[in-house]
Amino acid sequence: MNREFRILITEDTIEARDVIIDELNKITDFKIVFSECDSAVGALQTLDKSHAKGQHFDFLFVDIDFKEDNKGGKRDSGFEIIERAFEHCPVSVIATYSAQYNTADLSPRHIELQNRGLIVDVFDKRQQSNPEEWFSNRFIKHLKEIENNDFLWDMWHNHNLIKKFIDRTRLSKDDEEDAIKKAEIKQNLEAIIVLLKKMKLFNADEVVFRLIIQLYHRCLEVYCAEDKNPATIKQQSEDNKEAAERLLGRYFERGLGSDDSALRKLIAFSAEEKLRHGYRLNSHRNSSVHPNLDFKLTMSNILFANLTLALYTSPFKQEIRSEKIEQFCDVNKDKGVGYINDVVRFIRK
Asked: Which residues have C-beta within 8 Å of that of residue 113, sequence separation ≥ 6?
């Protein structure tokens, strides 16, 4: 993959910025374009302007203490920069560049942001005595991970599509219930990105994949239920049952469960072609809750779930992004890739 990496350096001392830039210029295996900010105000403005243009950074070095930037910066201004960067683009990889992150007054907030998945690494300035060892090796590792996880940009774009379209949809006649349902979907989507970014820390891919599949499935279930009560869901699913069976063939399960089961909600919502993909996501979810020895969740299944939820919620299929997801499939071959290819073909019809 030949792509350009956009790096933002937010640091109030030119000496520290020069150390980073010198090391970046030594890394010739990657095409790197970097931007500098010497104040907290400047960093926030840069992030806001880039976001307005739809241009986001792959990686950010963020100092914490900006009290000497001569532009109103504070000792903990770096935390505001981190939160703004994450708010604009949770896919960006953020590392602190500071020797003070573990001081008594800054450490609690720093740990909190790490636990929330906003900070993924710490580059301690005190290690500058051997910059090539502490910087290059670790930073190149991050670049490789960013490259390997490039599909996150498509996932995040599709999440934004989903959020945009659910905001235009009434999921309940009651304003409070409508807001609660929409908030649940949005919170689930945010959690998915955080889980994927922190997955290496957990060292438990299977557990994380199961959780993510369940979060996507829950979003789909809430969306498809709309404002229907159990009796309506049951009646509409029975009305669509014959069409669903024709579509799904031997994969169709005649036992649809309780009056408002997830399967009934899917069939009540639509018995058209996209039901094949929603039905498959429901099957993946069931296999993740009740582990099936013949079924192993992979990243391909997660990417399939992303595309399926976007397909259900988006009235404009052409706005769904899959190019980086397909590039992932070209490199990683497993059974789940076939499901992705299937849903992509339908999206492009």
From this structure: 79, 82, 83, 119
Owning domain of residue 233: 151-347
For the four alpha carbons of 181, 185, 190 and 195, in that order, the dihedral sign comes to positive
| Confidence label for 293 from pLDDT (cuts 50, 70 and 90) | low
Q: Are 252 and 242 in contact (CB under 8 A)?
A: no
Q: How does residue 285 score in pLDDT terms, banded at 50, 70 and 90?
A: very high
Same-domain check for residues 253 and 303: yes
Cα of 193 vs its chain's centroid, Å: 3
Does the pLDDT of residue 227 top 70, yes or no?
yes
Distance CA(213)–CA(102), nearest Å, equals 36
Contact (CB, 8 A) for 8 and 21:
no
DSSP structure class, residue 68: T
How many whole angstroms separate alpha carbon 284 and alpha carbon 263?
Answer: 12
In sequence order, what are the beta bridge partners of 59? 7, 93
What the block records as the tokens of 235 is: 């009646």
Distances (CA, A) of 324 to 103, 194, 261, 327: 40, 19, 34, 5
The model carries a pTM of 0.91
Identify the residue whose tokens are 């390997």. Answer: 148
Residue 126 has pLDDT above 70, yes or no: no
Same domain, 171 and 319: yes
Average pLDDT of 89-110?
91
Mean pLDDT of the residues in the chain: 90
CA distance 26 to 348: 42
Q: Are 214 and 329 in a shared domain?
A: yes
